[in-house]
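User: Can you help me understand a structure? I only have the sequence.
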Amino acid sequence: PPAMPGLLAPLTLSAPPKILKPRGEVSHLNRGGYNLQEKLGWSLSEYEEVRSFVIHLAHEHLNVRRSWKRQLVPKLLLVFSEAKSHYPVLKAYKDDWVVSDFLHVYLKNSSTQAN
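Assistant: Let's start by predicting it. Here is the structure, written out as tokens:
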């Protein structure tokens, strides 16, 4: 059917594709891993601000004497949710990998020191 003058076709708005996690493991540079700050391309102050907030959330909701694998999933989901709420830029990263990386590194260090 012919288009009626003055009517626009309905807009189909789709969210931009999410940013995928790089290959390898965070901080394992000698084994094909990556430097998180470098991959994000954030300034040092932005990186440190978000990292500090994620660590604050870890202390608030997680058992920092336990490794990543020993955390309760609902508590991790709460940390992801609060981090994205406070820093909406984190919503652009697929499967919360940025917050997950901050937590992996922090919990590895904090759980090792606790033992």
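Now, to help you interpret it: The longest helix spans residues 44-61. The mean pLDDT is 90. Let me know which part you'd like to focus on.
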